[in-house]
Amino acid sequence: MEGRLLLSTIPPVDNRHPYLRPLGVPAVRPNTPVLPFGATKVASFIDPTVGIVNGRHVIVGNKTFIGPYAKLNSTSGFIKIGTGSSILDGATIQSNPTRAKNPTTSILIGNFVSVGFGATVIGPSQIGAFGAQSKPTGIGANALIDSATIEPGAIVGTLARVGPGVTVPAGIYVLPGANVTTNAEASDPALGKVAPITATEASDLSKNLANNTALAAGYAALFQGDSSTGTTNIFTPARKGVFNGNLSAVEGAGNEPGSANGPSFEPTSPTGPTFQAPLGQQQPGLISNFRARVTGEVVFHQQAAIVAHSLGIGNSIRADQGQPFVFGSTFTSGDYVVINSPLGSNVASTGSGITIYDGVQAGDRSVILGGPGAKVSIGGNVIIGAGAVLDRSTIGAGASIGARAYVANSTIADGTVVPTGAIIINNKLVGSIQW
After folding, report:
1. Lower Cβ count inside 10 Å, N or C end of the chain?
2. Which range of residues forms the domain containing residue 188?
3. What is the pLDDT of residues 18-67, one digit of tens each?
């Protein structure tokens, strides 16, 4: 018998101490992958690949999306995540890395917080806020929050680090690759590590959070079943219109939810990846035990077994925000590689898809991102270093991107060597990763 840890069993927020007890549900069965159990309108979704350690100390609020291969480790300490937040693919949240006896450390992630692809948060840390104090707050891809406070309404850029004891104030944007070690560096743009948040940055963060809230509802519907996805025979709670739950629908290579299940930016019908058949034609590839998490219109010009053999562990290739993704032959990747197109559209003419040509190699924890209006392509025989982030950029054939480099909104010519840790934005070298 399993205990049902329902939303109604969690005490309400204490208005005098809102950070102490935010409304939420422990991330343990049966509250996974849909949390709380049997929810629809307020459902959070935790991808089945998410690694959760000591789930009774991981409290998750409503309408939150936790993406593939994220890690929530509360071996000692607590992790509390608010409403409308997103912990994206490959992110790591670790409450107390020292695992000290009788810890007092926790990680509080408030409402409307986005923790980006491959980012790491180490406790004790607080990001954003709960209740009336909450504002959209963001952490960029492969960034590190190390025992710090990110106030509601602040944004930490891609591959940036905020060190122990530092507080980033509201309205501040930590620049990509910056290593912020003092409160002065975190608050004074004149010191060169932060800047005021622009209207575009704030708007993109809000849209990203809204998209992931929609994806939480969509994947919850795929798992539970509804009038669009049909019933399942695994379990049926006493609840009209919900049929829990087909785990294979949200595992491996599978469908994106489709706009009928919530995300308005997706096609009407759920769409999934295709692989090359033995005779050369493309065929649907809904494979629940596939080596990577692959969703949406992802086109592999290789057979499924060959693709799986070429991928490392923990790869997330999601075309559920922008498509199509088209792969040539002999694509190889390391571990925990992320390929996504945030804020894109699933209409091919908008240019929010990604094309990856033959012979591309992506290193461990590298991130490749598309976006609205960006014609993203990675040319043949490109090498992408470990931890590098490519954001809405075109990389010419034979180029080499150094480890932990950041290339954004740029075009890299054929054969170019981008140094390790270089930061290239809008086709200009603006600095290097500081940590």
Report:
1. N
2. 7-207
3. 444 557 899 998 899 999 988 888 999 999 999 999 999 999 999 999 99
